[in-house]
Design goal:
By secondary structure, this protein is an all-alpha fold. It has one domain: Ribonuclease III (Ribonuclease iii, N-terminal Endonuclease Domain, Chain A, Orthogonal Bundle), CATH 1.10.1520. α2 packs across α4, α2 crosses α5 and α3 packs across α6. The chain is globular and about 40 Å long. About 35% of the residues are buried.
Amino acid sequence: MKKRDAERFSFVKVYVNLAEILTDHKLAALGDAFINFIYSLALSDKKGQPSGAKVKGSVLAEALRRAGFREYMPQRVTRHMLADAAEAIIVYAWIKNCIELEECVKILREAENSIEGFSQLLMKIKERIMLVRAF
């Protein structure tokens, strides 16, 4: 299987730092759809039948905190802003080939619960982004 060409996604701007990615509302909007998709795939695989689900913002906010991304955010943020940040960074990592869709689904499928799954996913993304400085 050929790796996705990150350059074909010309709508993704060049970011100076991690905080810019985490606070990009438009990227978060795309990430919302991506997160619900990978979560639905993981649930479908667990249940053995097609299933659609929406991930709660509180789950993503807590997962972002546990993964250590909170320090890159502005001082005063709401839970909604933290959830948006999780959505933005996860889809950004996928676009930039830091993580594959199948790996996202596997991490979520094997986790005990959704907070743990998204925490693990975000920690893996953080590690890879910091290694390659993909912004």
